[in-house]
Amino acid sequence: MTDDTSTWLIISLAAMGVAAAIAAFLKTPRERRYRGTPPVPLEEQLKVLPVSTQAIIIKGNKRRALIKSAPYIFIGIVLVGFSLWSKSTNNPECVRLLGINAAYISLLLFCYGLPIVFLVVSLPYLVTGIKTIKTGYYPPLDSVVFSDTISKKGALSTFRGITLLALPIFTLFVVYLGNNAYTAVAGGKNMHEIIEKLEAKCQ
Question: Is the model's pTM score more than 0.85?
């Protein structure tokens, strides 16, 4: 159980990274996706966009964007660090971290930690979705972006807003699944009984 939990924790974090990379790739205009192709200035891109999109350039603010992302980056580093440490431990059932069995911590992270992180990360997107639906612009004109970005109206922007509104609901479902997974693994035992069962292998 412990090895499987650690493995799935790493797989989940890797899937998050891959999903983020794919999202960033798809968000990037085609002419800027591949190296060797000079990017088209945003001003030139505005000229070819339909007037109906009412496109506007949002100025990037690298410092504010990094500060805004810092908590999520820190959480990700902690989760990845613990996963790699746990994976490199031969018998996590026999190791304690901050007085708690390491294998039990892995179980909690997989069943509750990751789902709750997904939920917390999705909450700011709820605000973005509301602003997108209200104004029609995606990203919203007051968004903090790392580099200059074109914000525009249209059916795609509205669809993105609706998707962002649905994201927290989906993450709540993930939290529900995580709780069910913990209940199934625990089998009615409390924390102390689970830890005793894990540590029994070390005696």
Answer: no
